[in-house]
Design a protein that fits this description.
259 residues; mainly alpha; 2 domains; 0% strand; rod-shaped
């Protein structure tokens, strides 16, 4: 990856407002990226590393650029969905609370019929009417059970982060999602951190896992920073990208130790 990347313009947009894939490929193509990532210092550690590992040429292959482009598109989609998460929870919460109040009232009615009404008037009712009252109680409890299942389904539609302590989701998996956002966190930087990690995985996969072939973390961070700028995401300092990598538990320790 080269210094040209840091000066690349924001992607041209298609009719749907998404970055143009062809413009993206053109922006990162070799004939536009003919300068080293560290300015004009051809012998900088980063450039020596890119040459030594053979990554310099791989960065401009359409297969890699296409993967990055798809990640950029997915990042935009996730960010749009992330912003909808709290909005949707706020919209659906009144329905959940109303359902709980209805369940409470039905439970109270059933309890009073069983423990108060039947106890007091059983001799007056006789067996026939007693069975009818039992049937009414059973129907009321069935309605309450249906409302409980509906409540769980409503809660399942809410992102886990926005659920409350007494929210219990359904055991059934929803086929259709109101908000298509599967990241565990909804913080402002959650999607960016996801993007950094995904790009880092793509960069890591370019070379063999052997120690002498892999890219150091600092080089990967600089490449991610360059990709963010070229992709129109904005200027991101490598040091700010590094923070989420410190908390990743799924990365092998060898990837966190650099020469």
């Amino acid at each position: 990856m080269h210094a040209d990347i840091h000066k690349a313009p924001v992607f041209a947009r298609d009719k749907n407002g998404r970055p143009s894939s062809q413009h993206y490929l053109d922006s990162l193509s070799p004939h536009r990226c003919n300068e080293p990532i560290d300015g004009n210092q051809m012998k900088s550690p980063v450039n020596r590393e890119l040459q030594r590992t053979g990554v310099s040429g791989l960065l401009h292959k359409k297969s890699f650029l296409g993967n990055i482009y798809r990640l950029v598109i997915e990042r935009e989609r996730l960010e749009s969905e992330r912003q909808r998460v709290p909005v949707f929870e706020k919209r659906i919460r009144p329905n959940i609370l109303d359902g709980r109040r209805a369940q409470g009232r039905l439970a109270t009615v059933a309890k009073r019929l069983r423990n108060d009404f039947l106890t007091r008037y059983q001799s007056l009712l006789g067996d026939d009417l007693r069975r009818k009252v039992d049937l009414i109680i059973e129907q009321i409890e069935d309605i309450g059970s249906v409302l409980r299942q509906r409540e769980k389904l409503q809660i399942s539609r809410i992102h886990p982060v926005t659920r409350r302590k007494d929210d219990k989701p359904s055991n059934w998996e929803l086929l259709l999602k109101d908000v298509d956002y599967d990241l565990a966190q909804i913080s402002e930087k959650a999607v960016d951190q996801w993007f950094y990690e995904q790009v880092d995985r793509k960069l890591t996969s370019l070379v063999l896992p052997k120690r002498e072939h892999r890219l150091t973390q600092m080089t990967r961070l600089k490449l991610i920073s360059a990709i963010c700028n070229a992709s129109g995401i904005g200027q991101v300092e490598p040091t700010s990208i590094k923070e989420p990598f410190r908390s990743r538990k799924d990365r092998a320790s060898i990837d966190l130790k650099e020469n």
